[in-house]
Amino acid sequence: MSETDELDTSLHLQRARSGEAPSLAWIVARFSPLLLAQARYRLGRLPSGLCEPDDLVQDVWLTTLPRLPNLPERGGRHTPVLVRFLATALLNRCRTLAQKHLWGKPARQPLPDDEAAVPTSDQTDVVSRAVRDELGITVRNAIEQLDDADREVLVLRGIEQNATATVAMLLGTSPEAVSTRYRRALQSLRARIPRSLFDEIE
Fold first, then answer.
1. pLDDT digits (tens, 9 = 90+) for 106-144
2. The dihedral formed by the CA atoms of 186, 189, 194 and 195, expressed in degrees to the nearest 10
3. Rounded to 5°, angle at Cα 27 from 26 and 32
4. For a tag on the chain, would you pick the N or C end, based on fewer CB atoms within 10 A?
């Protein structure tokens, strides 16, 4: 990982916390391809028609952006914390969709921070534009071009940040196989995307 990449993310995150629209748009555009990959993976395991991936990603951003000012850092780094925060929010939304489909009424999902936080109109406008921004098209295409097995490990291990042993248990394979698939996915992405965001996660 380039130290410059992490500094770029940290700088934009700090500015986004204070409400600066350009940095807010930068954050949303940079991380949305990861959320979109996760949304497609998770929604693909639910009955069709419950929600569109783009709509789910936009909903996650609108839920989490008001909580950015309270987002901690881990070892002086922000990227892994932000990715985990967003991925957890998306998982909660998918669980709610599944429960609503099964029972007709969603079970209450705990929110990671102040429940009363709501997005500002500026945040809503920025998300509406940035979540579909063309800047992320290269990353989206690179993720979609991965083999299904590699993309699955990428979501479970890289985006949702599960431990290798946990991913192996979920997929019914060995930790060694998971590590191999994950390395292969990262190598493929790095070949297509210089300064890959996944370098920051690692």
1. 444 444 444 445 666 666 777 777 666 665 778 888 899
2. -40
3. 105
4. C
Cα separation, 151 vs 154, whole angstroms: 5
Q: Which residues contact 132 (CB under 8 A, 6 or more apart)?
A: 54
Q: How many degrees, rounded to 5, is the angle at CA 111 between CA 83 and CA 28?
A: 35
Contacts of 90 (CB under 8 A, 6+ apart): 35, 38, 39, 42, 56, 57, 60
Is pTM beyond 0.85? Reply is no
Per DSSP (E only), the strands in the chain are none
Backbone angles phi, psi at 77, to 5 degrees: -120, 145
Distances (CA, A) of 163 to 4, 92, 192: 27, 19, 26
The rounded distance, in Å, linking the Cα atoms of 152 and 199 is 18
Q: How confident is the model at residue 103 (pLDDT cuts 50, 70, 90)?
A: low
DSSP string, 44-59: TTS-TTS--HHHHHHH
Q: What are phi and psi of 4, to 5 degrees?
A: -60, -40
pLDDT tens per residue, range 79-100: 888 999 999 999 999 988 888 8
14 is in which domain, residue-wise? 3-201
For residue 30, which of 10, 44, 56 has the smallest C-alpha distance? 10
Q: In the predicted model, is pLDDT for residue 8 greater than 60?
A: yes
